[in-house]
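#lab-general

N.A. 3:47 PM
ok so I finally got the sequence cleaned up, no stray characters, all 237 residues accounted for. can someone with queue access submit it? mine expired

B.Y. 3:52 PM
send it over

N.A. 3:53 PM
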Amino acid sequence: MFTKSAEFYDAIYSWKDYAKEAQLLLEFIARHRKSTGNRLLDVACGTGAHIAFLKDAFSIEGLDLDDNMLAIARSKHPELVFHHGDMIDFDLPDKFDVVVCLFSAIGYVRKPALLNKAIANMARHLVPGGVLIVEPWLTPEKVEGGKRPPVHSMFVDRPGLKIARLNETLITNGIFRSNFHYLIGQGQRIYYRRERHELGLFTHEQYLDAFRNAGLEVHHDEQGLMGRGLYVGVRAS
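B.Y. 4:20 PM
back already:
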């Protein structure tokens, strides 16, 4: 995943309005949660960017598979607990009122069977009346007929740090395979890094089925936090 770029992740995604997204997330939680506690688990928490705007409202823990991302999250929020784990099979001793998996991280499970496992695993960490909120990746319908998408670019222009990230993508067998190419100028050095990202393209019905199979009452919002939609599953009280 972001093994070669974790140190630059916050700079690359500085365009995201985490404060606005967190506020919208709080509204979804208030609308659907039936439990009365305030424990929240952020699965695939990355560098903890959303956590900064949620930790005043919740007692938060984070979980991620990438040690480099966790190191950054821990440095930002040293007072919080962070776990190393995979969303498919992590096993924590506690239950939570809210479990979230944001910014399309769910796509990294790649296969429908693993989507079901991940949703079920997150759901079993909910207390009765708790909510699971998942921000999906692209559906197959949103990708034009399996054609190779155009090259996408992102840029960072800060004093002492310049980054050009270009990604080329190929879609095969329901997998969105993208090579990220980073040209980085830092201080007096210019260097290159490359990452490969693979995400599953799951249909709307596959998301709904995964939530229902996990025993959750599922709701879908087309807009969500940033236009990618949002699935909200409620565990029975």
